[in-house]
Each structure stands twice: as C-alpha cells, then as structure tokens.
Design goal:
The protein has about 300 residues and is mostly helical. The chain has one domain: Orthogonal Bundle (MetI-like fold). About 65% of the residues lie in helices and about 0% in strands. The longest helix has about 35 residues. The N terminus is likely disordered.
Length: about 300
C-alpha cells in the first residue's frame, strides 16, 4: 500500500480505529420521547436504590402485628401511614419495594459487567487468533448454550448457597456467550479492514491491535446487548428469589416478596401486585431504553 499526501497510513489508523463520534446524535437524546421517558423511569429506580432511607416512610424490617394485612390507603380500611398497605407481618409494602430496588439493580448491572467482560475477552481472542483458540472457545459457547440459564443458576446456587454475591456470579458466568459470539463475528470483519493492515505494517503488536484498534469498533453491539441483558438478569434474579434460591431471607427482593405473598393472592391481592408491578416497571424501563439505544446506534452497527 502506497501512502500519498492524502492517504497516510498513520492518519488512516487514527481516523478509522476511533469510535464514530456524532455530537449531533447526542442532541437527539433530548428530542426523542422514548429516550426521555426511559431515562426518567430509570432515574426514579436508581434514586430509590441509592437513597432508600430518605424515601422510605418506615424501616424495612419493622413489624407491627396490629396493622398486619392492612389494605392500601385508597381502599376501605386503609391508612396513608402505609400507602401501599402492609404484609402478613405488618411491614410496610412501599418501604420494602423501595429497598428491593437495590437488589434488582445491583444484580442486573453487576452480572452484566461480569458476563460482558468475560464474553468480550473470549470473543476477541477467538476472532483475532482463530485456529484452535477459536475452535475451543466456540465449542465452549455451544456447550453452555445447550444448558438453560435458569437450570444452571438453580443448580449452582443450590450448591454454593444463597447470597447476593453468589447470584451475581452465577448470572454473570451464565450470560457471557452472547457477547462472545457477537464480538467474535465483529472481530472477523474488523480485522480485515485496511487500517488494521496498515497498523501491522507500522509494527503494532497483537495486543495493541485488539485493544486500540479493534475493540473500540466493536463496542456498539456490546452496549446494546448489555442494555437488554440487564432486564433479563432482573427477571432471573426475581425468579430465583421466588424459588427460594436468591439473595437470601435477610435481603429484601421483589421476588421474595412475591413468594411470601402467594398464600394471600386471592384474599389480599395487593401483596403480590405491587412487587410484580415494580418488576414490570423496571424491566419495561430497561427494555425501552435498550430499544432506543439500538435505534440510536444503528448507524454504528452498519459500519
């Protein structure tokens, strides 16, 4: 490849290997209703998770048997002291829902961080080196994909025990395959680009090629996958907690609240309704943000 005044290999590497920057697209965030709605909904959940003491009217474990199974304030027999009513032990439902946001968001984002890092790393290795490395990682992906995530999570937690850290680790190591497959496919395309060949000619090492030139150009699909995976992890955590294999009895989880209210679903319907609505609200907000993010980054995905 001959470098001319208008085509210098070094300049071509810098320009092509940098992620696409579009300041005008950032301004679109404030012009699209889906972005504003999803960000507003997510902000409420994040604020509740970060400052539960300031928002909660009562202590989460405070019991008052004299007001047990009290209905929400707008129903007959309700009291605005307990806006969403109380459970079978007289604990405030609203307070426990606010505190439950911490578990859901912590598990959702931490598990995505673990699975994302592991999947991106293995996907980079498989796509860049190929050969036996690619075959080994691909077979590992196929093997783990053959096992349902919920079954794998139940089996491991049943052995390790219930705790928030165990749930995060299990969900994190159970969801890396999607990242690895997508990154591998993207790397196979990007590493054949001219600026990668130019970087090789200039003496770039394999590590430099992967970290500085290839990884920034495969980040767009990774971000989209991560946004969708947060919602999936929240549902999985709630499912595990509902089955008694989640964060444990000492932690407040929306799934645990659903499990505790099963016996009262026909007589005191608000007990399972409000935790269920909290899960639905959070998953809807995350999915709405993920849908918008996919459309927002579509020009980058087409590169």
């Amino acid at each position: 490849m001959v470098a001319t005044k208008h085509q210098n290999p070094a300049n071509m590497i810098v320009e092509a290997s940098q992620p696409m920057r579009r300041p005008q697209q950032i301004q679109r965030v404030f012009r699209e209703w889906t972005a504003l709605l999803s960000l507003g909904m997510l902000s409420l959940i994040v604020i509740a998770a970060l400052f539960p003491q300031a928002l909660s009217p009562h202590e989460p474990f405070q019991q008052n048997i004299s007001v047990r199974l009290q209905p929400p304030a707008w129903l007959e027999g309700g009291d605005w002291t307990y806006p969403l009513g109380t459970d079978q032990l007289g604990r405030d439902v609203l307070t426990r829902i606010i505190y439950g946001a911490r578990i859901s968001l912590a598990v959702g984002f931490a598990a995505v961080a673990i699975s994302g890092l592991l999947g991106v790393f293995l996907g980079l290795l498989a796509g860049f080196y190929g050969g036996w490395t690619e075959r080994l990682i691909t077979r590992l992906i196929d093997t783990q994909l053959a096992i349902p995530r919920i079954l794998l999570a139940v089996s491991i937690i049943a052995v390790l025990g219930q705790s928030v850290s165990n749930v995060i680790l299990v969900l994190g190591f159970a969801g890396w395959m999607t990242y690895a497959r997508v990154v591998r496919a993207q790397v196979l395309t990007v590493k054949a680009k001219e600026y990668i060949l130019a970087a090789r000619c200039l003496g770039a090492t394999n590590r430099s090629l992967m970290v500085r030139h290839i990884l920034p150009n495969v980040m767009s699909p990774i971000i989209v996958i991560a946004s969708v995976s947060v919602a999936a992890n929240i549902i999985l955590e709630s499912s595990l907690s509902f089955l008694g294999l989640g964060a444990g009895v000492e932690a407040i989880s929306w799934g645990t609240m659903l499990a505790d209210s099963r016996s009262y679903i026909t007589t005191h319907g608000w007990l399972p309704t409000f935790p269920g609505l909290a899960i639905m609200y959070t998953v809807f907000a995350v999915n709405l943000f993920g849908d918008w993010l996919r459309d927002f980054m579509e020009p980058l995905l087409r590169r």
